[in-house]
Amino acid sequence: MRKHTRAALLCVAAALTLTACAAGKGGGANSDAAAAPGKDDKLTLTVWSNYSDREYEEVTKALKTFNKKFPNIEIKHEGSQDDDKITAGIRSGNTPDVALSFTTDNIGSFCSTGAFQPLKPYLDRDKVDLNQISPAVRDYTEYKGNRCAMPMLTDVYAMYYNTGMFSDAGISAPPKTLDELFEDAKKLTKKSANGDIEVAGYLPTMGFYANRPTILAPNFGAEWATADGKSGLSTSPGFTEMMTFQKKLVDFYGFDQLERFRAGLGQEYSADHAFHQGKIAIMMDGEYRTAFLKAQAPQIKFNTAPFPTWKPADYGTAFTTGTIMGIPKGAKNPGAAWELIKHLSFDTDTIVDLSNAIKNVPSTKAAMDSPKLEVDEQFKTFIDLAKSDKLKGNPVTPIGDAHIKAVTDFAAEYTSGKVPDLAAGLKKVDQSIDDQIAKSGK
Fold first, then answer.
1. What is the value of pTM for the model shown?
2. CATH of 156-319, one of 3.40.50.300, 3.40.50.9100, 3.40.190.10, 3.90.1150.10
3. Are the beta carbons of 327 and 119 closer than 8 angstroms?
4. Residues 401-434: pLDDT tens digits?
5. What is the spatial distance between Cα 415 and Cα 244, in angstroms, rounded to a whole number?
6. 287-319 tens-digit pLDDT
7. In this structure, CATH architecture of domain 3-154+321-379
């Protein structure tokens, strides 16, 4: 699974306090960088991640490349460890040396509570050049100047479209504007004699697959916060435009018809995914879908392009997120843990090999430019977006993903017709988010 769905939907700020973190040992917020291990030191580094199956095996291979530098350090990789388990381990004092999280939305909680140790002492000591990593990726690995994590590959989101369906509908190029997307969606949609949807040109159900407000927000120029740091959904024209556009599409299909259609679609990470089955023609998704399609649906002819934008000047904008790596409070071998994180963050060959294996976007400029990186026509879209200055992530808050859940729930209610007043509804969401942040004390 990928980052926006595979992680547990929890509010770490509520479950994990600084007092609870104190159950661990060593590596407090004011500690200096722990010494790096000697080349011949023998120890075991425990790594927790939420990878499984084939991806688990590939990540384990990447971890093992650390032994070229430290041959006597054993890597113990435990997969299927989500943020709930990481949180419970920190609270009980049973922590790994390195934790890999799929939930960038929780970075505010990890950093502000001390759950992940600050990395600045290590970065300063080793004179690490963070400019090797794009600004958007740097943003989602720190909170208020406290860098407590590093990235391990990234996800970038763009448009997928069925080229066969486009040809049959007489559409010669992918849409770039919202008006073009709306018109193409209508042309590509097929209905049965009784009005049931057989093929959706573009599925506007909010919260389904990757059609999520958080992922779509950059393409609408939606701003999450006001200048004074308050939630700013109701004052952002982009959020209003996003909700209005999605509802216009829902109204075109009919909410009840959409629900019947959606009920018969396959799971997001199964071979029965609707795009795999030719039931939707256009969708938003991450770069990893290129590998899923080629493995599970080779009969589908597709291409990728930047997702359409509200303002033409914003074309080429994209949402990004990714796996993050941190040293949990209480880690037994923080110095060695940092060396492993640094290796996975900046060793170009390791990053490129892992990117080629699991088809995620590399997290450094050197890796993206490597001649060893396997880039076909479909994957190139995501590399180009990752290199641009229009890459954007979610805002980092101390309440985990609670603000994201609030806006996603509201989007589903509004587009379904349950909320008649968009402006008033967005103001209520703003108030809810502000209240939760205030209660967090951060």
1. 0.89
2. 3.40.190.10
3. yes
4. 788 899 999 999 999 999 999 999 999 999 999 9
5. 8
6. 999 999 999 999 999 999 999 999 999 999 999
7. 3-Layer(aba) Sandwich (3.40)
